[in-house]
Amino acid sequence: MLLSLHFKLLLSSFYSPQCALSSVIKSSAFKWRFHFQIVGLGFKLVGVESTRIEFSFGFSHTTIYFLKENIFAARTSLQKQSFKVFGLDLSATALLVGMLKRVKSPDIYKGKGLRFHREKLKLRKREKFSR
């Protein structure tokens, strides 16, 4: 509750919401952090706000996830296709992480999809058809 009050005070200040969110992340002690990376040509991170994450995974529509009150998300400034999810509660944060991974898990042949940052994937070789 104290964190959400602190977050609302920062958003009402003269800073932009992205700057306010980054100062909340730096100033508070979030226990659980997950860094995601989107790999693939047709997969895009459309928007990341403090209350929602919006993806375009090549389906006919964008996928929007609304976050609970103790979970925040921020786009990393290093890469435009990566973002972080921060949470105070392990169960709520792990539930969101599991839902995100289920939407577009990494392909076992090419490695494209939504995965953790620096996650090592063992890719399979494709078998050639014999006639």
Keywords, separated by commas or semicolons:
single chain; 131 residues; alpha+beta; Outer Surface Protein A, domain 3; four-stranded antiparallel beta sheet; disordered N terminus
Explain the overall architecture.
By secondary structure, the protein is of the alpha+beta class. It has a domain at 29-116: Outer Surface Protein A, domain 3 (Alpha-Beta Complex), CATH 3.90.930.12. Helices cover 27% and strands 28% of the residues. It contains 3 helices and 7 strands; from the N terminus they run H-H-E-E-E-E-E-E-H-E. The chain has helices at residues 2-11, 17-27, 90-103, and strands spanning 32-39, 44-48, 52-56, 63-66, 71-75, 82-87, 113-116. The strands form 2 sheets. A 4-stranded antiparallel sheet has the order 5-6-1-7, with helices on both faces. 14% of the residues are buried.
Question: Strands, helices and their partners?
Answer:
Elements: H1 2-11, H2 17-27, E1 32-39, E2 44-48, E3 52-56, E4 63-66, E5 71-75, E6 82-87, H3 90-103, E7 113-116
Antiparallel strand pairs: 1-6, 1-7, 2-3, 3-4, 5-6
What is the strand tally?
7
Shape, principal axes of CA atoms: elongated
H/E topology pattern: HHEEEEEEHE
Regions with little confidence, pLDDT below 50 for 5+ residues: 1-17, 23-27
The rounded distance between the terminal residues' Cα atoms is 66 Å
Number of helices: 3
Look up the CATH topology of the domain at 29-116: Outer Surface Protein A, domain 3
**What is the CATH domain class of the domain at 29-116?**
Alpha Beta
Largest sheet: 4 strands, antiparallel
Which CATH-level-2 architecture of the domain at 29-116?
Alpha-Beta Complex
